Amino acid sequence: MRIAILLILLLALFPSNALAQTTRYNYIGPWVWDTSEWWEDFWRGPTGTLGSIDLRSTPQMARPEDGGGGLGFFVTDRLLPAPYVFLNDGLDNFISVPSKPYMEAVWGIKLEAGTTRGLLWELLAEEGDPTGLSRWKPLSTGSDGKIRLELGGYSPVVLQEDSPAVKAHWEVYRTWFNSHGG
Asked: Which helix (DSSP H) or strand (DSSP E) does residue 90 occupy?
């Protein structure tokens, strides 16, 4: 559910006409542990982040001391230095050549997607871990039984009936629910 909320909120903080005037850069990179507020420390994207998708496992989210070792997808209004890996500057543009081997090595998966749109779908609908222990949780279906990936200004990015990853996600949930008196 957290990923679905992040997806809906991705870029939604800014009107689409304002984003149309701004070049957007897509990156994969680490989260920043921010201690600048006296009342609370929190995770945030790099400076210039317009929207983000959390690609960390649940255990990684709980480790502020080293960034948790996990990554995020960030849409920014500026170019970023390393360790952020540049994908491209558009949803339907091809992802950069160096970014694919980097992501495959970090996550131990083989990626087929060539564009940002395809990459987000592949990561969020097909490569997630239903338990959230080794990777992010996959997208789940809406009340209509379909999976939607919606980003502000792109509605919907992808629409699909169901996937094996989502079925596995719901099976994990049902198992947990039944084992806890549901």
From this structure: none
What digits encode the pLDDT tens for the residues 61-74?
887 766 567 899 99
Question: Which residue has 């949780």 as its token pair?
Answer: 137
> Minimal CA–CA distance to 165: which of 108, 127, 135, 123?
127
User: Which amino acid is it at 127?
Assistant: E
Q: How many domains does the chain have?
A: 1
Residue among 159, 93, 172 at smallest CA distance from 133? 172
Residue written as token pair 């940002």: 116
What range does the domain containing 141 cover? 2-179
pLDDT (average), residues 125-134:
89
Cα 41–Cα 31–Cα 2 angle in degrees, nearest 5: 85
DSSP secondary structure, 92-142, as one string: TSBPPTTHHHHHHHHHT------BHHHHHHIIIIIS--TTSSSSPPPP---
**pTM confidence score:** 0.74
Q: Which residues contact 77 (CB under 8 A, 6 or more apart)?
A: 22, 23, 24, 25, 48, 50
- Interval 78-115: pLDDT, tens: 999 999 999 999 888 999 989 999 999 999 999 999 99
